[in-house]
Design brief:
This protein is an alpha/beta fold. The chain has 2 domains: 208 residues, P-loop containing nucleotide triphosphate hydrolases (Rossmann fold), CATH 3.40.50; 68 residues, no CATH class. It is 21% helix and 23% strand. The chain contains 7 helices and 17 strands. The chain has an 8-stranded mixed sheet with strand order 3-2-6-7-1-8-9-10, with helices on one face. The termini are far apart.
Length: 373
């Protein structure tokens, strides 16, 4: 029942969209289609629907092809006169779906016949006697602004097709749908991307007289991907991206030396011998051994300089810098002659005599004298 308009430039897919999305489904449902699309073939459409849907041809609707002179006729559409009397002895019958190509030619800026005005406003009242389906009207025009305002204001939905020539996609087109005739964001219903199906084109002809024609690209620059610069840029970008990705992967996955000399020797049939202690291959560091000679016996300070006193089992004293020791008092530890020295290391021996300590006298363990001359 609503009036739909399909807009778009030449060869953008207006007729294709109407044939594939409007006429074919209508014929499959048994409706009668009245259209002036060039080259449209009822027999080919019936055969196509039978092969695709296995629908009996006897149940399919009919295609009534009309020329432009028929569309201009006063009795082309069913209408109501001023006395509200219905006139259905017309080309278009109640319940038909009417698809008119280049609608601007018939209902442009000029005045519209009164009978046609009646159909535009009251076509929903003309229903099929058997099915009860009302008439529908589909208009095809390049720009909806070329239609008369009287007709444009009663358009329910506007579709606009756009062939993706600038992207080098000659077999792809987009279609946008708006509610009403105003094409803005507020009335936008949806957007779809479609591809042309080759089996649809034989069902009609988009060229005058039904002849086979083709179009050529006048200027290759209209294709964004036709120049070398964009491909060079794209190739460079791909190479740089791959290089960066590989560098990042190498950074987080460094090469590891999995070569095991001992394993290689074992695989060759020769028993692998462990590396001797201290050899370059032995990377483990053994902890220092406890000293069997020296032990900490005290500490003292002379002129603000501290010293740690060590003793051996014979009672021989040794003075070391506190920089090689850690801790204090009984927890003091240090490394002397590559051995660990504490207050409990060394071995029992001659008791340490205080007379052996050079003045100033050695203070008790942990006690720091104030000063000495």
């Amino acid at each position: 029942m609503p009036i739909n308009a399909y807009t778009g430039l030449m060869r953008s897919g207006k007729s294709y969209e109407v044939v594939s999305e409007v006429i074919l489904p209508a014929i499959a449902r048994g409706r009668r289609v009245v259209t002036n699309i060039d080259g449209i073939s009822e027999s080919k459409i019936h055969q196509y629907i039978f092969e695709k849907q296995n629908t009996p041809i006897s149940s399919l609707g009919k295609v009534i092809h009309v020329d432009n002179q028929d569309v201009f006729r006063e009795d082309f559409f069913p209408y109501f006169d001023d006395m509200k009397s219905a006139h259905v002895d017309t080309v278009v019958q109640p319940g038909d779906i009417v698809c008119i190509d280049e609608a601007w030619r018939f209902w442009g800026v000029g005045k519209i016949h009164k009978n046609h005005q009646s159909f535009f406003l009251e076509h929903g009242h003309f229903t099929d006697e058997e099915t009860g389906v009302a008439c529908d009207l589909v208009l095809m025009v390049q720009d909806i602004s070329t239609l008369n305002r009287f007709l444009k204001n009663v358009v329910a939905f506007t579709f606009k097709t756009h062939k993706k020539v600038s992207l080098g996609m000659n077999n792809t087109y987009s279609i946008n749908c708006w509610e009403g005739y105003k094409l803005n964001k507020a009335t936008l219903v949806g957007t779809w991307i479609r591809k042309y199906k080759k089996e649809i084109f034989p069902l009609y002809s988009s060229f005058k007289g039904g002849v086979s024609g083709k179009t050529e690209t006048v200027d290759q620059r209209q294709n964004k991907f036709g120049g070398k610069r964009i491909w060079i840029t794209f190739g460079t970008l791909v190479i740089v991206t791959l290089g960066c990705g590989f560098a990042i992967w190498r950074f987080f996955h460094p090469k590891q030396n999995n070569e095991n000399p001992g394993q290689s020797v074992a695989q060759s049939g020769i028993a692998a011998k462990p590396a001797p202690q201290g050899s370059p291959g032995n990377v483990s560091v053994a902890p220092p051994q406890r000293s069997e000679i020296w032990r900490i016996v005290g500490s003292y300070m002379v002129r603000n300089e501290s010293f740690v006193v060590l003793a051996d089992p014979r009672g021989v004293l040794r003075v070391e810098s506190p920089s090689v020791f850690n801790g204090s008092r009984y927890s003091m530890t240090g490394s002397v002659d590559q051995s660990l020295v504490t207050v409990w290391t060394g071995s029992a021996g001659v008791p340490v005599s205080t007379d052996a300590i050079v003045k100033p006298p050695l203070p008790p363990l942990g006690q720091m004298p104030t000063n000495h001359p």
